[in-house]
Amino acid sequence: MTLNAKKISFIGAGNMASAIFKGMLANGYPADLITATGPDQTALSALSDELGIQTTTHNIDAVAKSDVVVLAVKPQIMKQVCNELAEQALHSRPLIISVAAGLHASTLDQWLGGGHAIVRCMPNTPSLVKAGASGLYAIPGVTQEQRDFTDQLLSGIGLVEWVAEEAMLDIVTAISGSGPAYFFMVFEMMQKAAIELGMPEDAARRLILQTGLGAVKMAQETGEEFAQLKRNVMSPKGTTERAIHTFEGEGIEALFLKAMKACADRADEMSREMGE
Fold first, then answer.
1. How many angstroms separate the CA atoms of 113 and 260, rounded?
2. DSSP class of residue 116?
3. Do 123 and 187 reside in the same domain of the chain?
């Protein structure tokens, strides 16, 4: 099948699911091939009226008519949802794409009855503004055509990066999954420092956001290593050098490693807890 020929159902129509199917629609995907499910008929009707997609409160009916099923419910209720869908999924054998954090593919496969083609996706919150970074892992039974479909599907909300081992999704979580919070924390601290130094809050916010945007754009367009880009800003005995040396003197590199390792470790712990 071509990309536009697949019928796809989203089990769950929350923020992340909405970001994905809105990205699909923006890329020209036919609305009548998309179904979203949820418990609130009023909210579903509003989605249908706004976007032209199909909606239903019946998960099993949605799976029955789908080539692809995106599991987008909260991890805490995923087992219940999968158990409900298992019989139909075993019959129709759709491609399963999970955007639920912390649930191993083997756990999902077990809950769905076994033998499924499953792709796990670790998206992040900037996906909501089509600037996301998603890590993807496919179990061995997923075909190249199914991988290609998933890649194109999720490219509508940002960058897609495949990993060879499922454990690497914990590192993806530490980089891009939780990473937006790191940047927001830096922005927040810069703004507080600027205000303390006498800068009006609104002006500080504008300067910080534009500086962040400019730094990312420069890194993307030049392709230079981050370390070299940093050095390019640092004049010998200048202002930037003093600031960077202050950060380094406080052990910021070791702190980042410690924080990101803690994040990856917690992602692994959560996977084990929810799998149990």
1. 35
2. -
3. no
The pTM of this model reads 0.89
Q: How far apart are CA 198 and CA 225, in angstroms?
A: 34
Could you tell me whether strands 132-138 and 118-122 are parallel, antiparallel, or unpaired per DSSP bridges? antiparallel
The gap between the terminal CA atoms of the chain, to the nearest Å, is: 37
Total domain count, the chain: 2
Residue 85 lies in a domain: yes
Dist. CA 11–CA 196, nearest whole Å: 48
**CA–CA distance, 83 with 87 (Å, rounded to integer):** 8
Asked whether the beta carbons of 127 and 19 are under 8 A apart, the reply is yes
> What is the C-alpha separation between 148 and 159, in angstroms, rounded?
14
What backbone phi and psi angles, to 5 degrees, belong to 164? -80, -25
Averaged over successive runs of 10 residues, the pLDDT of the chain (276 residues) comes to: 74 93 90 94 94 96 96 93 96 95 92 96 93 96 94 93 96 95 98 98 98 97 97 96 96 96 92 76
